[in-house]
Amino acid sequence: MTNRVETLSIFVFACLILTGLQIAASAQGRGTGRGQGGPPAGGPGRGQPPMTGVDRGISTSSDMSNGRADVGRGRASDSSNGRSDMGLERARLQRENSHRADEELNDHPHMPARLQTTANSLRNGYQSALLTNPNLNFGQYVAATRLETNLRATNPNITRGAILAGLADGKSIGQTLQSLGLNEQQAKDAKRRAEREIKEAKRR
Q1: For 153, phi and psi rounded to 5 degrees?
Q2: Phi first, then psi: what are they for 71, rounded to 5°?
Q3: Angle 138-151/160-168 helices, nearest 10 degrees?
Q4: Whole-angstrom Cα distance, residue 48 to residue 41?
Q5: Residues 163-180: pLDDT tens digits?
């Protein structure tokens, strides 16, 4: 009788152990299944659909910024290059005209004195005038200087500066003289007289 009780107890205990093992295995299987089926850590399944969030925002912002930056740089470059080209052209004209003036003064060393001035006065005055009008040639400057000498006593408003201002505005010497008060014939006569005196002053 005792042996049968012990055997039955062992059998019941073994059944309990097997049942516990099956329950544990089943629970572990369900847990593993959820872990394998879930989204990987840090992946897009954590509330973020593919191609959204910070990465996409940076990409879009970068594209938009680069577009504006490229256009801005292009406009600034074009504008800067335009100003730079104009400045270089003005400097080139000033340099070339100033060089021609030096050559003319060297070729005609007696001209300044005969026109009641000096070589340095003509040279320095011409270089200053080129800063305002780089297209001004030396002959025009000398003519304006001589016209002032000839006309200022009877026409005080006819000065070298006023004549140079008219030339800078695109007028001829004759047109400028008329705008300063001379009639057409008076302007022609004054211009011819100045040209004749300059030509005589250049003679050796």
Answers
A1: -65, -40
A2: -65, -45
A3: 140
A4: 12
A5: 999 999 999 999 999 999
